[in-house]
User: Fold this.
Amino acid sequence: SIFNQHDETFANAEALTDKINRMTGAKAVLCHLEDHETLRREIEDSVLLANATSVGMKPMEGQTWLPDPSYLREDLIVTDVIYSPVQTEFLRIAREVGCKKVMNGHGMMLFQGAAAFKLWTGKDMPIDHVKEVMGIE
Assistant:
């Protein structure tokens, strides 16, 4: 399930949903982020909840798109593609609720960097060293 604000970016979300449905075996469904009833129902049926919005980054630090902490539960895995700040408001709430696993965007950034490193140099990036330098687990 993909949720997007019903704004100027909604057409992009429609195109992405269509592409996923045409090119993969997955069945993507696009919903309005403002439809809180559907959002709650979809999160209840999910194992993983990923935030791929910029809400939580500058200039929206301290904000979240999540209507209420009660949408989350302890057995939910939560991730946020944002890597700065290290802990967004969304992740803070997920930790407070006690979600099973809570991850920021550092892993995504690390492995995108590794892919780019390989493309540019033809060599594998020393992932463990870079993780140490970045201060991530």
Observations:
- Residues 91 and 102 are 7 Å apart (CA to CA).
- Helices lie at 10-23, 36-44, 89-97, 106-121, 127-134.
